[in-house]
Design goal:
Trna Endonuclease, Chain: A, domain 1, single chain, about 15% strand, three-stranded mixed β-sheet
C-alpha cells in the first residue's frame, strides 16, 4: 500500500524507500545496515507523516547500531545548529571550506567601498581570483535564501568591486529559483546546500571530510560554544588539539578530552 508523506514545503509525495536507503548509504552505512534501518522504520509510517519525522525515526534507529554513522546522517541538522552559537561560527566554517579548495582566506574584514565601508564575512583569494563572500546562516531547514538577500549582496559588491573579482553568497540551506536566475544573470556565485550540484557546501564537506563540531554527539552545546569562541569550528580542528589543552577549554578531564579527540577522528575518517 502506498503511503503519502508530507515534504518540508507542504507538498505531498509517495514514500520511496530508495530515498531513505540512499541517504543512509550517503552517511556511510553499508547496504545491509541501511536495509535493516529502513525495514524497521517502515512499520511506523502512516499517511500524512512528514519527512522530518521519518528522518528522526531513521536517525534514532541508526544511532542504536552505528553512532558515528548517525552523526554523519545528522549532518544537515549539525549545520543548522552551528549558527546557534557565536555569530561568526558559520563564517569561519565557510572559510575552512574555501581553504580546502585552495583559497587563502580572511574573515571579518572592513573594506572601504566607493561610498561606505563594508564588513566582509570572508575574503577568499586564489591566483587571480579575489572573492567577496557574504555568509547567511539559517537555523531552520525550511528557511531558504530569497532574492532580497541576493540583491543585497550584489549591491554591496558594486560598492567594493575595485577590490574584488566576484561576489559569492554562501548559505547552509537552499536558494529560490529566482535567486538562481538572478545569480546567473549578474555573475553572483552561489554556494549552498546541494548547489552547485556536486560542488555545494554538503559536497565539499564530504569530499574533504571537513565537518562542523556540532556533529560531535559527545560535545554538549555549551562545550561546542566554548570551542567556537577559541576558533575551533571543525572536527579536524579538534583532532589537532592536545588533550590537556582541550580539557582546559571544555573544563573537563583529560581522559574525557582524549575520548572526544579520538571520536572526532572517527567522524572525519575517510574509511
Amino acid at each position: 500500500m502506498e503511503i503519502l508523506i508530507k515534504k518540508i514545503d507542504g507538498t505531498t509525495q509517495t514514500y520511496d524507500p530508495k530515498k531513505v536507503l540512499n541517504s543512509l548509504q550517503h552517511a556511510g552505512a553499508e547496504l545491509e545496515t541501511a536495509k535493516n534501518v529502513e525495514e524497521n522504520i517502515r512499520g511506523k509510517l502512516y499517511n500524512g507523516i512528514d519527512t522530518k519525522t521519518i528522518y528522526s525515526y531513521a536517525f534514532r534507529e541508526l544511532k542504536r547500531h552505528k553512532p558515528i554513522l548517525a552523526a554523519r546522517y545528522d549532518l544537515k541538522n549539525a549545520m543548522l545548529r552551528l549558527g546557534g552559537h557565536e555569530g561568526y561560527a558559520f563564517e569561519k566554517f565557510v572559510a575552512r571550506l574555501m581553504e580546502a579548495q585552495g583559497y587563502k582566506t580572511q574573515t571579518d574584514v572592513i573594506i572601504q567601498g566607493k561610498i561606505i565601508p563594508h564588513e566582509i564575512d570572508v575574503i577568499a583569494e586564489k591566483e587571480k581570483e579575489k572573492i567577496m563572500v557574504e555568509c547567511k546562516h539559517h537555523q531552520r531547514e525550511f528557511i531558504i535564501s530569497h532574492i532580497q538577500t541576493a540583491l543585497y549582496v550584489y549591491a554591496r559588491f558594486l560598492d567594493v568591486k575595485k577590490d574584488f573579482t566576484k561576489p559569492m553568497l554562501a548559505t547552509n540551506t537552499k536558494f529560490t529559483p529566482q535567486v538562481l536566475t538572478y545569480a546567473r544573470g549578474v555573475g553572483l556565485r552561489l554556494f549552498g546546500w546541494g548547489y552547485p550540484r556536486g560542488e555545494g557546501i554538503d559536497s565539499i564537506m564530504d569530499k574533504n571530510k571537513i565537518y562542523p563540531i556540532t556533529m560531535h554527539h559527545k560535545l554538549r552545546p555549551e562545550q561546542a560554544e566554548k570551542c567556537i569562541r577559541k576558533g575551533i569550528v571543525t572536527l579536524l580542528d579538534i583532532e589537532k588539539i592536545p588533550p590537556r589543552k582541550l580539557a582546559m577549554i571544555l573544563e573537563t578531564s583529560e581522559k574525557n578530552a582524549s575520548g572526544i579527540i579520538k571520536e572526532a577522528g572517527e567522524y572525519s575518517s575517510k574509511n
